[in-house]
Structure formats: C-alpha cells, structure tokens
C-alpha cells in the first residue's frame, strides 16, 4: 500500500475520518456486544492519529443511535466524547433515529435528533486548508408515514432538501464539495451475492434514494461536487462498488458507502428472542471493524479503509477529481 507520508506531490487540503452506522443504545445486553466493538474501533483509530496526526473532524451520516430515545443519544454523546475528546463530530440523521425504544413509546421525531446534537436535519460547514472545502449533510426522510406507525419504504429527498443541496453548491462553487447522506444513490453499492441476497444494496427498495435522478441532475450542474458518502446498507467487505465513480455532466462524482462497524451483511447482527428478553449476536464473514480515512487534495482524493480489528489498512483508492 502507498506510503501516505512520502508520495504526495501536492499539499493536502483536508484530512477527515468517516464512520458508518454506529447504533449506540442504552441497553445492558446490547452493550455486552456493542461496547467491545466500539472500544476496538476507536482505540485503534486513536493509535493511527497518534502516528499520523489528528484529522480535522469525524463524521457519521445517520443511525448513530439504534433508537431515537433520549437516553440513547446521551449514551452516544458520552461514548463519543470519551473517544474523540474535543475533535469536532458531525452527525447525520438516519432511519433509526425515527424508531421508538419500544412499542409503548411515541415515535421520535427529527426535532429530538436536532435537540440532542444541536444541529438542524440538514446543514453545511466549510473546512480544510483556507476553507477550500464545503461539506453538506442531508437528512434521511422520516421512516414512518405522518401520524402512523406504518413504514415508508421510499427514501425520497424533499423539495427542501434538493433546494438546499442546489443552493449550497451554488453558493460555494469555488470550493470542493463533499455530500453526506444516510442513504446511497441508486445503482451504486451492490450485493456480494445477489442470489443469496447477502447484503442490502442500492438496488433494493428502501436502500436507495428514490429520486436519485433529481439528485444526480443537481450534482451534474455543479462540477465542484466531488464525493457522496452514505451508510445505511451495512454492506459487507467485498461488496461491489463500495467505492464507485460515475460521470455526471462534465465531471466525476465518487460514491463511498461506509461499512457499519456494528455489523455487516443481512444475516448478521443482533437478534432478540421472541419474548424480547434475550439478545444474541452473529458476526459476518469476514467480520471487519471498518472505517474510512479521507485525504482531499486539489486534484485527487485518497480514501483508505482500516480494519481496526487487525490494526491494518486493507485497501486504498486514489480518486482523480476529474475523469
């Protein structure tokens, strides 16, 4: 793998760390499995930072909590503060932020997310060397139809979200633009084995943005749009197009799907007994604890994926800013 400390010929604009769905929950049985995984993730991350230097920020676009209860937000904030300290952390809202802690509680709202993180559901910030980068966080639409407990399985960005994306890209046309959203665009990350349906993927309903053509049309008009980060699918290692570059308009956009360090694959993860009293946990094969280090340069982006279980870099992509 390329030695990041010696091979760069241009000045780095931004270095940050992106983490997939974290799923914090204030539950004793849950944390018997969850806490050791998070500890291994963040302790190895800290070891990398001591060696390479701290990133400008960490970001996680949604499903940071498994249920939208206040005590789960408090646990997530406490754990992240323990591991990140004063490092800026940028959260997004995912579908699980709308889920109730149990059937007896009212459905959480986007307002609960905003109150917990002191962030609106969509926002932007400038960062990097001389603030050469704008980051745009988009929201996951509400998981439920209004006033019901019926799931809305179509992930459709609202007109307000699309207008925010277009306007922000226009206002920051002279900056490199990075978009974060919980849900991937359609036909990006794919299933490792479609016949066995090992993974949820961007061709499955609920796991792609339903109005992806409208999103792509906006991004095509803005050559500064370079990267689109998502999570949501819990894609396993080896999923095709985990990092996928497409041509939009006259420029390239790279879609990066963040693997989930809690679990990957459709057949893995936590499972409650029928009476909801006992939790079991199953790991994927391979069972990775992955997160992504991102280095942005004027003419390229270097993305490295780290397996925190083995303390090793397992793949690197060098992504030109233009095709």
Structure, explained:
This protein is α/β, with parallel strands linked by helices and 323 residues long. The protein has one domain: Metallo-dependent phosphatases (Purple Acid Phosphatase, chain A, domain 2, 4-Layer Sandwich), CATH 3.60.21. The protein is 22% helix and 24% strand. The chain has five helices and 14 strands. The longest helix is centred in the first third of the chain and has 25 residues, at 28-52. It is globular, with a radius of gyration of 19 Å.
In short:
The protein is α/β, with parallel strands linked by helices and 323 residues long.
Domain tally: 1
Helix content: 10-25%
Q: Hey, roughly how much beta strand do the residues contain?
A: 15-25%
Radius of gyration from the alpha-carbon trace, in angstroms: 19 Å
Predict the CATH topology: Purple Acid Phosphatase, chain A, domain 2
| Class based on secondary structure composition and strand pairing | alpha/beta
Specify the CATH homologous superfamily. Metallo-dependent phosphatases
Q: How far apart, in Å, are the first and last alpha carbons? A: 23 Å
Low-confidence stretches: 1-7
Order of helices and strands: EHEHEHEEHEHEEEEEEEE
Features:
alpha/beta; 5 helices; single chain; six-stranded mixed sheet; 323 residues; Purple Acid Phosphatase, chain A, domain 2
